[in-house]
Amino acid sequence: MKVYFVGAGPGDPELITLKGKAVIERCPVIIYAGSLVNPAILSWAMPGAARHDSASMTLDDVIAVITKARDAGHDVARVHTGDPAIYGAIAEQMQRLDEMGIEYEVVPGVSSFLASAAVLRKELTAPGVTQTVILTRMGGRTPAPAREDLEHLAKIGATLVIFLSVDKLRDAVAKLSPAYGYDTPVRVVYRATWPDQKIVEGTLADIADKVAAAGITKTALILVGRALLGATEASRLYDKTFSHGYRKASP
């Protein structure tokens, strides 16, 4: 018996990995994050597979389902949205499985921040601009460490991807503007790759009003940084005057 933590991707069913799809197809027990996982993904489950929506479940509830599956000798597909390593709350589940001696495996998926970059057709790292991407979230009912406040992170000047915080966008703008400047581009992507996807483009000066007008209050990412404008110089990777292990420079 084995538990598979599967990253189901950002929304588009075709963005799950082949391995993740195969796990869902063969597991007789599926526990899925029903508030976020595309229901189309469950259509791959075998006939008669037990399906449990974890949206209303506690950690103990999840473990109880896994324990019952273990006793029956059934593998479990624990399906999370995006990639489970980012805000997936899998660490506490894996700790309990370690204590119970239950084997598990993590099958990575496409994170919503990568899907957002794709639908924006942007490179988050740009030569001459930044080579750093920071993934973070603002504190709410679950607090964030004070050292990770947006005011501190903004000083780095990296591309900033803010999860789970679009309802606090005006606070984010106030914290980011002193370091980034009000003319810094911002993109808010609602439900990237879903049929009802929305993209709002602006700057720190106007993005909050634009997002409010669009009626977006949840399930969206905030992307901030000058890399969203593109590179100020070409990458050296394909520069004919630049040598590396696979190519010699040409005059």
From the structure above, extract its key features.
globular; 251 residues; five-stranded parallel β-sheet; alpha/beta; Cobalt-precorrin-4 Transmethylase, domain 1; five-stranded mixed β-sheet; 2 domains; Methyltransferase, Cobalt-precorrin-4 Transmethylase, Domain 2
Fold topology:
Elements lengths: L1 E6 L10 H9 L2 E4 L17 E4 L5 H14 L3 E5 L10 H10 L2 E5 L4 H9 L12 E5 L12 H5 L4 E5 L5 H12 L4 E6 L7 E6 L3 H8 L5 E5 L27
Parallel strand pairs: 1-4, 1-5, 2-3, 2-4, 6-7
Antiparallel strand pairs: 7-10, 8-9, 8-10
CATH superfamily of the largest domain: Tetrapyrrole methylase, C-terminal domain
What's the number of extended β-strand segments?
10
Q: What oligomeric assembly is this protein in? A: single chain
Helices and strands: which structural class? alpha/beta
Task: Supply the number of structural domains.
Answer: 2
What is the name of the CATH topology of the largest domain? Methyltransferase, Cobalt-precorrin-4 Transmethylase, Domain 2
Helix content: 25-40%
For the record, what CATH class of the largest domain applies?
Answer: Alpha Beta
How many distinct helices?
Answer: 7
Short description:
It is built from seven helices and ten strands. By secondary structure, the protein is of the alpha/beta class.
